[in-house]
Amino acid sequence: MPRMSPDDKIMKPYLRKLMRDHRMLNRCIDTTKAIGTGDEIKAMKRLRLALKDKIVALQRHYYGRGLTR
Question: Are 51 and 8 in contact (CB under 8 A)?
């Protein structure tokens, strides 16, 4: 079994947390569309996009071009 580098020990759990946060925000946006104001939804969408950008940047930096789960 290959050994994990210190970066892997930190980054894999961090990436999983970011991905969980992104999924939760997706669900929140979907459920809020019916009752929330446009400004609230826009703010959540900006946050969601920032999370996705961070996830993709970290994946590219640590794992190359392919996306990992």
Answer: no
Give the gyration radius of the chain's Cα atoms: 15
Amino acid making up residue 8 = D
User: Cα–Cα–Cα angle for 60, 66, 69, nearest 5°?
Assistant: 95
- At position 25, the amino acid (one-letter code) is L
Task: Write down the pTM of the prediction.
Answer: 0.71
Q: Could you list the pLDDT tens digit for every one of the 69 residues in the chain?
A: 456 666 777 888 899 999 999 999 999 988 887 776 788 889 999 999 999 999 999 888 877 765 555
32-to-26, 28, 55, 59, 61 alpha-carbon distances in Å:
10, 6, 24, 29, 33
